[in-house]
Write a structure and sequence with these properties.
The chain is mainly β. The chain is 4% helix and 50% strand. The strands form 2 sheets. Strands 2, 4, 5, 6, 9, 10 and 11 form a 7-stranded mixed beta sheet that branches.
Length: 127
């Protein structure tokens, strides 16, 4: 099973940008490169929600409506790394951001399909 470690979170003013990274370790070659990967987030007092997902090859992506045109998900299979570029950040983007792997799924956005999760990285956007 792949282990995932997120980084890149922090405190930023509204309108600013952050780039999150998620590095996979363990059985990375076969698992990471053949897993749909996703970003999810959980704000205080709220349920964890889908943010973005990307297919094995990176040619297909999907986003929740609230981040469309502001966030970009990408992956580098050679480095076993997933990214989330976040621009034009808003206070409502404040949350703990998790990356996750959906092993054996080419592409999915269903939270239940993601079996491996990182510990999360905190993003706080001040107004």
């Amino acid at each position: 099973q792949v282990q995932l470690v997120e980084s890149g979170g922090g405190l930023v003013q509204a309108g600013g940008s952050l780039r999150l990274s998620c590095v996979a370790s363990g059985d990375t070659f076969s698992t990471f490169s053949t897993s749909a990967m996703g970003w999810f987030r959980q704000a205080p007092g709220k349920e964890r929600e889908f943010v973005a997902t990307i297919s094995w090859t990176g040619d297909r992506t999907d986003y929740t409506d609230s981040v469309e045109d502001r966030f970009t998900i990408s992956r580098d299979n050679a480095k076993s790394t997933l990214y989330l570029q976040m621009n034009s950040l808003k206070p409502e983007d404040t949350a703990l951001y998790y990356c996750a792997a959906a092993g054996s799924y080419y592409f999915t956005s269903r939270q239940a399909d993601f079996g491996s999760w990182g510990q999360g990285t905190q993003v706080t956007v001040s107004s």
